[in-house]
Amino acid sequence: MNTCFRLPAAAFLFCLACAASAHGPAPDTSPQPRAAPAANPNTNARGLTLALLDAANQYNTGAPAAKGLLLANLINVAKARKDELVLTAQADPAEFMRVILPAELLAGLPPQAMPFLEQSATVSGSLEVFHVDHVNPADDYYEHVLTTTSNATYKVHFAVSAPDLQSGIRISVRGVRLDNHIVVAAAGDVMVVKAVSVLGNTLGVQKTLVILVNFSDAPSAQPYTVAQAQSIVFTTTSNYDLETSYQQTSLTGTVAGWFTIAETSAGCNYSTIAAQAKQAAANAGYVLSSYNRYVYAFPSNTCSWWGLGSVGGNPSQAWIHTKYGFTLSVTAHEMGHNFGLYHSHSLDCGAAVVAGSGCTISEYGDVFDIMGNSSGGHFNSYHKERLGWLNAGVSPPLTTVPAGTTATYTIGQLETARDSVPRALKIPRGTSCSATNEYFYVETRRNVTGGVVVHRITDGSVDSSYLLDMTPATSSWTDAALATNLTFVDPATGLAITPMSVTSSGAQVKVAYPAASCVRAAPTMSFTPTGAVWTSAGAQVSYAVSVKNNDSCGCSATAFDATATVPAGWASSSAHSASITPGASTSTSVVVSAAAAALPGFYAITLSAANSSASTMAMSAPGTVAISTALAVAASADQATYILPKQGNATVNAVISSKVTSSGTLVAGASVTVVVRDASGKSSTLSGVTLSDGIARVTYTMRSKNAPTGTYIVTSTAKIGSVTGSGTATFAVGKQTSAALADPVVE
User: Fold this and answer.
1) Do the Cβ atoms of 60 and 664 come closer than 8 Å?
2) What pLDDT is stored for residue 435 in this prediction?
3) pLDDT of residue 138
4) Would you say 388 and 341 are in contact if contact means Cβ atoms under 8 Å apart?
5) Predicted pLDDT at 244
6) Do 73 and 66 form a contact (C-beta atoms < 8 A)?
7) CB of 492 within 8 A of CB of 429?
8) What is the DSSP string of 254-286?
9) Phi, psi at residue 565, to the nearest 5°?
10) Quick one: average pLDDT of 19-39?
11) What are the Cα distances from residue 264, in Å, to 19, 24, 214, 219?
């Protein structure tokens, strides 16, 4: 159901919600509690956007004596809208991208409002990725903080799923900036300028500085001793890393502190805690550059998270909120993030082991991995492969199974000390005739008897480790292993995995691929233009729809039906694409027609593409059409009549102005095409863009020796988005006939 938000032209009401913060002056790049949404969070952002345009119209058409008051009103609306958009950028970046104004409308607003408006921006710098681990996993999230060479910091938000990035890389992002927030529309708008190697910082002795700090309002709080901190980090956690890495990685270093820092326990600014902790350690004589990993541990404060870690980075950083424990499960987990790891999830698909939809993800659901919900379990085989602890250098090997074959493979127990026996199987989730970017990783563990553990992984996505429940009939995850002589058959591909035998030393696992068969699947669909498309009531918007056939390779070619779901009173076309083979792509178009009576506002539509051979296999995506009033164009020349001079090569210039308005509001940034038809019928085309006064000016040049005399007709057509308007004007051209006449200006 569509909702169009419209405010009265004369007045509107809005309220501002202010929240006290103890996180220091802006910009604050610390993780903040997620703001609770209003009853209808979209109403404010959309309503204030329409109110801003309404206020601009009142300002541009108001009497000179009222300009000051009208401008003040416009600025107040712009400020309120900015505050609302900042919240929207953090809570719902996709909605932020739907309600921002296009550049041509922004250009028509007075310059006094610009500090409160969004702007397109491309920003480059060094990225830090932080994961915030809360007591309640539902509150977990990732922070992406970009720091430029001039030390400006921006929080980066993604309107779609954030790409897999890690700390320390240099990136360039293209998006929309408001204050110290940048919203990125798509993963393609992020370009990695300089990548970093995970393997280069995960092997060998890791020089680590643990800094113990307490707060200025509780300087005596020391919930554990230096010796206890030394033991948990440099004995317990180091031994864990040494075993898990097959004797390749360990921790060494120093515990510094206790230090009392200026921050109070009433705050929760992780960047402030880190800066003050490092300064205190440096003042005490510790050489920070001697360490490539920093760990900050502190007593209870207002932070609701139990740990926080940079994802990668050199130096890496980890924060341990010891209110929730200074233990192996916390330190090894946060330092796992420091190595570059994301979480180990679980995938619950109800009665099925795995399915294409209807599954629930548990952020910490892997009960066997310390990056999930284990107090000391090894990193899983996929994570070890990423770290270079499997299948690289002197590490134990990993067997990648050839797609389309049937064979039995031997693997050793994951935790066994280093030798030449493969520790896991990496099985392509494909068929004998199709490639895939998904894999099943199969491993055995010492605390799992009589079965093998299976994870589903997406190649190229480092945050894609999902434990699968091979006993979905039970509610427990501790029995998630695939038991001996039982077979898991992948419903998408028919691939079969059977552990033939499992002992304390390893397992024999049979992998069998089926012959090629046809499995119809939902297509992948995208469309352009994206974001809010501005047009006028009764006008049409054409969408180019791209579709990829995801059917299995055993299927015959099929066509796809592209449609649009539109608001009541609107209309849309449908399209039947050409037939394409599995894996191929095609494109078609769908035209959406706005209702002639549509009021100004934002309207939701849905574009869909369905497999013609299996209509339930479909994909849809939302779009937005923004209705604006039609453009009015007033064309004029700077003179009613132009006299050609006697000199044959002399010229005369006509300056043609095209004034563009929308409901009386001057429109800046509109593209204007000016066609001048001379007295002989020959046409010339000029182009321009309206300035802040709503006028585009072009110069039409006439040469005496070949310019015909008579009436010239000017047609000016303005366009902004898909909204157009036109206007006409005429002027006369004559020749000088008397020497007594004053010569015109000749250029």
Assistant:
1) yes
2) 64
3) 76
4) no
5) 96
6) no
7) yes
8) EEEEEEEES--TT---HHHHHHHHHHHHHHTT-
9) -100, 125
10) 32
11) 19, 11, 8, 10
